[in-house]
Amino acid sequence: MTRRLEAQDRIHRTLRIWNPEKPQVKNSTELKGHAGAIERVAWNPTKEAELASVSSDGTCRFWDVRSKACTATVQLGGEGFSIVWAPDGSAVIVGTKDDKLVLITILLAPQASPAMQQPVQTNQMTFNHTHPPTHLLITRGDGSVTIVGYPSFDPIHTLHAHTSSCLSIALSPTARYIAIGGSDALISLYDTTDWVCKRTLTSTSGAVKSVGFSFDGSFVVGGSEDGSALEVAHVESGECVGKIETPGGAGVVAWHPGRYWIAYAGEGGGLRILGAAGGQM
């Protein structure tokens, strides 16, 4: 989540960009072009007006929000499922539904390298925070998280994090912890100094489809398509410090990069933003 916020419209195959300071529809921006359901989006961390989206139509599209234009389309060779943008803006990695990873380098124009077949089901990913990044963390369907070198993709370490599929992952802004969400409705918090699980959060009602840290790394929240509430936990203690009632499942959650605001969306439609200093959109 940046100063602008994205909402995915999987029925109409469009993206809508919201400004949290001006939540009226007339102040939003609609982006059209995908021929299939949009699965995930990622903002360019170095250019706030650029984002990328992956779709079941087998493409990754790059957008300029200011001009409302699709600036590039990359064929993936399979249905897009997940996406992560390198912290220095140099590359995007897309995961497909047939468990391949596609590296797209951002030079004069986005260019895809040959797809890399993965040995097991592959879900969400995250880079480490260095510029340029040196590691990629990949969640797996066998309950593990594989840490590989980047850009070599050579395996370095494996965390056996959950007894069922690992679905989502986030690295705290301080890089001290990683949060791993699983289909077992658990969020495990690993200390990156020794790769030991320090806490397990059990308050989520269903499979944890997304997970995120607050801007200072103090709090963590997970999103699930089941249940009717989001619970915010303190990272160091694991205690629940806040509960957000939702009209239904909220499978996608994201924190504001500089405030204690949480944006969430679910199958019921719509994007909502709640925070200590703001109301609800």
Name a few traits of the molecule.
about 280 residues, mainly beta, four-stranded antiparallel sheet, single chain, five-stranded antiparallel sheet
Description:
41% of the residues are buried. The model is unreliable at 1-10 and 277-281 (pLDDT under 50). Helix content is 0%, strand content 53%. It contains no helices and 27 strands. The protein has strands spanning 5-9, 14-18, 29-32, 38-43, 50-55, 59-64, 69-75, 80-85, 91-96, 100-106, 110-112, 116-117, 122-127, 135-140, 144-149, 155-160, 166-171, 177-182, 187-191, 196-201, 208-213, 219-224, 229-234, 240-245, 252-255, 261-265, 271-275. It has 281 residues and is mainly beta. Strands 8, 9, 10, 11 and 12 form a five-stranded antiparallel beta sheet that branches. A four-stranded antiparallel beta sheet has the order 4-5-6-7, with no helix packed on it. A four-stranded antiparallel beta sheet has the order 13-14-15-16, with no helix packed on it.
Task: Give the helices and strands as they follow along the chain.
Answer: EEEEEEEEEEEEEEEEEEEEEEEEEEE
**Number of H- or I-type helical stretches:** 0
What's the count of strands?
27
The biggest beta sheet is recorded as: 5 strands, antiparallel
Low-confidence stretches: 1-10, 277-281
